Amino acid sequence: MSLPNEKASILIIDDDANVLNMLELGLQSEFNVVAIFQPEKAMDVFSTGDFDLVITDIVMPYVSGFEILRKVKEANELVEVILLTGELPDKARPAVTSLQNGAHDYLLKPVKLFELKAAILKALEKQKLRMENKRLLLELVRVANTDCLTGLSTRRHFYSQLYQEFERSDRYSRSLGCVFLDIDKFKGVNDQYGHLCGDSVLERLGELLIRYSRASDMKCRFGGDEFVLVLPEANQEKSMAMADKLLRLIEKEAYDLADPPLRLTVSMGVASYEEKNFCSADELLNAADQALLFAKREGGNCIRFSRVAASSATSTPNLVSSQ
Ligand code: GH3
Ligand code: MG
CB under 6 Å to ligand 1: residues? Predict the structure, then answer.
């Protein structure tokens, strides 16, 4: 697609050399025009260029304009297409078919240049709006899925990632680790240093989780000072190793937001899906949450691993400790 201050690029296809020449001459002062009279080469030329718009005749040997329209839309839905044709017995039908198949407009030959230019400008305007809509929609999705303080996934987005990953692990009999993390005595940070300082701590913790995990790991701010990591392909041993690494890194990190620098500890609950030990992603998450609860009960700054679904956890569940 052309940049805002560049001329738009147009590919014109017509097997009638006279029409083609007339269009090329009439448009080339305002647009970058590539004109071809072999319709069978249209898609090869299209794929090597960066076109904003395609103008094509409908009735041509080997390949029809409808086929070119379909292929262009398949290749890049944002490229607009204007179809041209000579008089046909049933004028309405090709017009309706073109528009139904995604063409921007349909003009009858002989084409008047001013009419075609008006159609081109409208097509380019529509394209600009569609591109802007697409950009805004992507931005909206990104904002909705990202926690603004930490840059991690929001809880809602995380759930959809978790369910998808659990389904994949279940189908292909793979392990899936889950680490629930909560900052110890975080309320005290806010109380002592203020909420802005507390925010900076959360921000830095988010950065640390991103820096020391894999891109394929899912990282979420679950709420407040709670975070969850989901680790594809991680069994108990790997999940515990990851939790252990994070515990030590966080403990070592000095937050120069206060004097003397602030230090934090966290507690973690870990669970892993292996050999169908959990029936659902929720069970896996709840098991990690339960393990976190036990880590907290034991004074924090430690990791607990739960082997069982939360519903079957007792006051002394099947737990493994670290630290
Ligand atoms: P524990 O060791 O049991 O985890 O205690 P805690 O103080 O960390 O936990 P508690 O649940 O009592 O407090 C969590 C605190 O997190 C309370 C709340 O004000 C704070 N908090 C939640 N969200 C934010 C936020 O976005 N920014 C800041 N600065 N603080 C937050
Ligand atoms: Mg806490």
Answer: 149, 182-187, 190, 195, 198-199, 202, 224-225, 296, 300
